[in-house]
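Hi, here's the filled form for the chain we discussed.

Project: internal
Contact: R.S.
Residues: 413
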Amino acid sequence: MKINKITLQQCPECETVVEVPQDLPFQISVCPNCHDVLRPANSWSLRRCSIIALAILILLPFALTFPLMSIDLLGVPIHATVWGGVWKMATEGYPYTAFMVLLCSVVFPISFAMLVLTIRLQKLLGHRPRYTLILLSRIQEWVMLDVYLVALSVAAFKIRDYADLSFSIHLSAFVIVTILTTLLFIKIDPKEAWAYFYPEYHLLPKGYPTHPSLCPTCEYTFDEKIVDLKGRQRCPRCESNLAISDNIKLQRVWACLLAGVVMMIPANTLPISATGLAGSVSADTLFSGVLTFISMGSYSVAAIVFIASIAVPFSKVAIILYLLLAIHYKWKHPIHWQMKALHYVHFVGRWSMLDLFVLALMMSLLERGQILSFSVGDAAFFFGAAVFLTMIASSNLDARMLWRIHYSNEKKR
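And the returned structure, exactly as it came back:
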């Protein structure tokens, strides 16, 4: 009977040292304490992932520049494209809002696929992709093609009562790119790439006598102590700074959260869009836009917009605030409920960008000066800034701080 090699892996969430068997294909490894996934079971090889990334790059020019849907306005066909919406928004006087849409719908999807191909090329050339792997792990949450696809449906429901609407055959390119990008998210495993490119950094064997350390960037469990010229501890594999104190991390979270809350005030009080029809202009805030969908009888769309634009941003701020207070006052609340709340924030944060994508699509279809016109309101920039700031705040909120408080409270009992 073959005995599999067992190594030690420190859980990046709860810091539990787990014995993980190696060379077990199609088997998932999870932390027995917090159930965080330590090693996925269905990851693909870098070669296969690079083929998917190449297919994404080939299709992206068609997905971003070809028409997704069209309207017939007095016999004149008008097409909506991803790039056209960004360009119209920028040239109509909303460059900062257009830049945020550009990043999440164009720049980051292209960058994500190019990073995967770059890692494959570095493997063929014998180069080590330290910074490429770090960028790859940090860019994934900002790729929002799936959110844009939902926004396309919302925009279609919003405009169908004003003009004849039809979807283009070229929409299939965007759908395929979205599916391939999501598949690449699931199948690529940066930890496996780290282990391949840096084989000299061995995993700790079972029964290792001392308590190891963990790098949160590359998730390397080690026992060396590497210090730079400034006296800061560094990861021996990815060279990330490990000397950032919990106080500094909390200050970053507080700063981003408070700035996001400030941005949410004008985002919810000022008009986010204005629609003109035959000389009559109606401006909508986030909440009045939901009421408009309800009055049109589109209850499912109203629910999607309400959840993405109102419920998610406010619940995200409330949860981050609660977790910060729980850390500050060392509350003895169930740790698994706190982890579920933190995972919720990480998952839903990006879906708040749906409203900005809808605005970009509407700008692509309807121009000022037409019988049916559309323009972006002043609230759009503040709303996008609030989404970005709260996403940065949640990414800087370290789950290990909550677990350390939990362990400390357990010892006092």
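Let me know if anything looks off before we file it.
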